Every structure is written in structure tokens, then in C-alpha cells.
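Deliverable D5.2: sample structural annotation.
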Amino acid sequence: MNQLEQLYQRLVSSGPTGFFETLLFTLLVPLSVLYGSLMWIRSQLYRAQLFRVTSASIPIISVGNLAVGGTGKTPFVDYLLDYFSVRGIRPAVVSRGYGGSFSGRIAVVCAGEGALMQPEQCGDEPYLLAQKHPGVQVLIAPRRRDAIRRLDETGNVDLIILDDAFQHLSVARDLNIVLLDAVRPFGNGYPLPAGLLREFPAALQRADLLVMTRAEKVESYPDRFTLPTVACRHHLSRTLRTLTGETTELDCLVNKRGVAFAGIANPQAFFNGLLTEGLQLYEQVAFADHVSYSDREFERLSALEDRADYFMTTEKDAVKLAGLPLNKPCYIVSLQLEFLQDDALKEKLDEICHEVKHGVE
């Protein structure tokens, strides 16, 4: 992450400090109002049915958020895939493939027998889901309705999960789930570019269910949350694996010196989680979100190897680390999703299950 990116992240997260930052922020605010207004007008045009909306004969679940950045969508989609699969329901995932090089109409990341593409082609999240759920169909498409039509026509899936699709209004959905950070659900309150919101908070009226992440860090939510709401937290898996497949326990690394690196939306949250577990990190390396690891990144990590006992990274980064030239072990940390309260979620998901089974019967 370069200095300009760091400045912007600090500006929209913590607010301006000093004359230059205040001036820059002041210039960004009108652009935010304009952007937020355009997004509101767009949503109203869809609501008035002036734009075409695609629907399917099978249920569609949308998982998205109101802000840019990491709120834990991938672990949540991972949870949904497990939830439906163990109940004998065949889910599929449709994503835009953000961060990947694919520019065609539709690509099959996984046809139910493991990943068929590389993360550089399809994006980190679709590849990771295909890797963790090799029996699930995962498709990417710049126009997601194209992939939805294909899945709907084949008839070999029971429902579709749309990844990162709250703002993708051209597709009708049966369940609209939005993930929010419980600590700062609206950031500084501004849409892009003065803030991190993709839309004004009023857009939550379209949602059917809110999932509050990092809920263990707050005592209550704002009064405006009148929608069904569930609470969850993400914690690090106690068992780690290396890029070569060996496993170890997190506690075994407490007295060793490590280097943590990540190219995700919120790398500091990852680093803080490791520090909370008592790990000694003498270096924290934050790369750009969805970084494509090249010789430049590998050289930066290699330069730290002499002072490290181990390296540590995320699952999303690990899928892009083939050929990492390190002699020290590189451990992969997975996030575990734990619900503190999930009655409303299970009620909604069970309604979808009933709809699927009723249609099959």
C-alpha cells in the first residue's frame, strides 16, 4: 500500500488532520453528495421498473454490503454454502470476478469438480470458494444475469448465491442480506470518495436482513436498524497450515518472531487479530487489495526473511502465492464465523429451504 493509498484510508476512516487534509476532504465532500445522489436516483429508476430486472425460476440470495472494504462477505458465503449443502440443497455462486483478468461473457470457475481457473483470472474470492467447495458450481460474469440465466436453464442447481451484489439491482432476489461492521456501520457517514459508503444509509430499506460483524465489540446498534438483525464475530482458526500442507497450532508460534502480510481490503484488522492472539510480529506488510503477487512483492518479503521465524498470511492471499521464494514456513490463517445471535438468519434460510424443497416435490 503506497503513501497515497495510506493517506486516503486515513482520511476517510479517521478524518482529516491539518490544513492540507482538511482542504482535500472539503473538496471531496461535494463529489460524495453527487455520487450518493446519483446512486439514489439509479435505485429509484429500478424501483419504478424503468430498467429491466432479471429473475430466475429458483431462489436467489444476495450477499453484499453498504461500504467498500472487508466486512467478511466471503466467510459468510462460505457459511451459506455449508448450510444449504448439508440439507441436501445444491447451491451455486455467481460473482463479478472482481480483481481477475477475465473479460468475456461467462466463465466457469468451478463446475462441481474443483477449480478450473487461476485466481489471477477469476479473482480471489471465487477461486477461494471453488477451492473450499469443489462440489459447488461457481461462475463469474461481468453481467451477472448472464450467469444466472445459464444456471437457471441447466436445472442442476437449487438456488443461486450472488456475491457482493447489494448494488446489483438488475437481478431480482428472494433474500437480500447486507453485512455491516458493528463498530462503524457507516464509516464517517459519507459516500465515495469522501467516505467509504457505496450508497446513502437509506438504501438499507432494500435489505431483508442485516448481519452485524465484529458484534462482540459493541453493546448495541443504532436505533435506525429496524430490520431483522443477527450478530456475528470472526475469529482466527487455532489450526494453521503452510503453503506446502503441513499443520501446526497457533499457540506454537507465540514465542517466535513473525512477519504478517496481506493484500486485502482491511489488512490492519488481520494484523490486529494476530496481535490479539499474542503473536510477536516484527513486521506487518500491507499490500494493495487484490494484489497480484509478482517478483516485486516476493522481493519485499524475501528481504525480511533473515529476521523472521515464519510468515503468516490470509486464505485469499495464499491462493496467489505459488512460487513464493521463502525458506521459512508461511502459515495460512483462516477466519471462522461465529454467530452470537442468529435466529432471524436461520428463519430466513429455512424459508428458502422450504421453497426449494416444495418446488422439487
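Annotation notes: DSSP finds ten helices and 15 strands in the chain. The mean pLDDT is 92.
The annotation will be released with the project's public dataset once the embargo ends.
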